Amino acid sequence: MLTNGKLRGGYRAATTLTPGLFAGLSRADLAAFMLHEGSEDAYLRQAVAVSQ
Question: For 1-52, what is each residue's pLDDT tens digit?
Fold first, then answer.
């Protein structure tokens, strides 16, 4: 679930769904992941789950 919380700087990203992975994520942390991924291409052409 996306929250309006502050940037915490810690998130997890994975290409496989793991039970308990979706504990919540701030919009700021999701934006940070997306900006980082835009320059790294670590998950290029893959579906990614991102969580706190």
Answer: 888 999 988 888 889 876 665 667 899 999 999 999 989 888 989 988 888 8
* Residues 49 and 24: beta-carbon distance below 8 Å: no
Cα four-point dihedral sign 3, 42, 49, 12 = negative
Give the Cα separation of 15 and 27 in Å (integer). 20
Distance CA 32, CA 50 (A): 11
User: C-alpha angle with apex 39: 23 to 11, nearest 5 degrees?
Assistant: 15
